[in-house]
Amino acid sequence: MLPTAHVATALAVNRLAGFRAGNAPAILGALVPDMIDKTLSWVLRITPTARHIAHTPLSVGVLSLGASKLMGARWGRAFATAYTVHLLGDLWHGGRIPWLLPFKRYDWRAKPWHVDFSPDLLVLEALGAAAIVVLLRLPDPTDEGPATLSS
């Protein structure tokens, strides 16, 4: 999946789950796995693939725990849900996920560890962008409404 599809899915799932943490943890949780792994692979050339250590349940747990400690439990749950949805989205869209890394060795030469770009992927990306616009325009579930002065 591409970034807009990840973000749209995470926003939708977090809203359906009723998390009252705002949009930030959903957006961040949807993007963090790729920000880490793609940077390590494509930019720094440290890892053999763009789905590596940040695409594991271990990373979901560690980073979500950190988010909970820094931002609170609601924020951490929303972040963890978005992060997990990211991994499931990558798996559903035809990619492989190293679920047991670093506890299991993987053959990184085996295909596919990446998703080839195709016209249908670009259509999904456009739909994802439209969904983000719609979801962000909906009332924020954390909004308590207009402030009123009590007498």
Q: In angstroms, what is the radius of gyration? A: 17 Å
Helix content class: 55-70%
Low-pLDDT runs? 146-151
Please report the total strand number as a whole number: 0
Principal-axes shape call: globular
Average pLDDT taken over every residue:
84
Write the element-wise H/E pattern from the N-terminal end onward: HHHHH
Strand content: under 5%
N- and C-termini, Cα separation: 52 Å
Which structural class is indicated by helix and strand composition? mainly alpha
The profile of the biggest β sheet is: none
Q: Please, how many helices?
A: 5
Label this structure with key terms.
151 residues, mainly alpha, 0% strand, globular
Any overview of this molecule?
By secondary structure, the chain is mainly alpha-helical. It has five helices and no strands. The longest helix is centred in the N-terminal third of the chain and has 20 residues, at 24-43.
Write the layout of secondary structure elements.
Elements: H1 3-17, H2 24-43, H3 57-71, H4 73-92, H5 119-137
Summarize the model shown.
The chain has helices at 3-17, 24-43, 57-71, 73-92, 119-137.
